[in-house]
Amino acid sequence: MTQGQSEVTVDARPEPIQLSPTRTAVIVVDMQNDFATAGGMFERAGIDISPIRRAIAPTARLLASARHAGMKVVYLKMAFRPDLSDSGSPGAPNWIKHLPLQPGEETTAPDGTPSRILIRDTWNTEIIDELAPAPGESVIYKHRYSGFFETSLDDLLRGSGIDSLIFVGATTSVCVESTVRDAMFRDYHCLLVEDCMAEPIGADLPRSNHDASLLVLQVLFGSTTDSASLQSVLQQFEPASIAE
Question: Which residues are annotated as catalytic?
Fold first, then answer.
């Protein structure tokens, strides 16, 4: 890549897309202990977290390449306030759908400290150690599946001149898909990295919710790629050339 070049072409589906690192942010969706770590909400509920665990290593490599290229990285975390005031009323659909997973239930973190399922500022809702944010990176709490609902995400991205988003995280068919749809409605260009996201539902079937979500999203809401294809172009950038 020549000095000063500001865009790369990514091999994506349904067709290649152009990305400018200075106008692109990576959105890391809900890679927190409740979803991806033994002792978290999913594992306690008997949900297989191995698909999410498999996405961790490629995601870590991709984030390193994105930071090297000068991209902004933003983390989303699903969590409710300690008094559950933002979870919805007892009859609200959001609360009803979460209820089987016991949000607010007291539990114990692996280090023996008290914690609570899906509650802010506890071990359960911390970003997993393997994908810890770098100093200065934004972490935004959300209390619905979409990262744009009643959060500061849109203002943060607009204020940074971002018009394209790369998505990684969990789960593909719920919080990732919900956030991608809302992003597209706000005119962001969306790219999903297939091997850096996961969906436990249907993971043991020939065609899972992960596959179904990626299909509909690449047809109508964005594009899809894999981490190797994306990294191969991001690694062409030198931080010094981005700043100029």
Answer: 30, 142, 175
- For 77-117, how does the pLDDT look when each residue is reduced to its tens digit (9 = 90+)? 999 999 999 999 999 999 999 999 999 999 999 999 999 99
pTM for the whole thing?
0.94
| 235 to 28, 65, 238: CA distances (angstroms) | 19, 6, 8
| Residues 205, 203: Cα–Cα separation, whole Å | 6
The Cα 115–Cα 150 span in angstroms is: 25
Locus of tokens 């597209």: 184
Residue 25 CA to residue 155 CA, distance in Å, equals: 13
List the domain boundaries for the chain: 8-71+128-137+144-243
Secondary-structure class of domain 8-71+128-137+144-243 per CATH: alpha beta
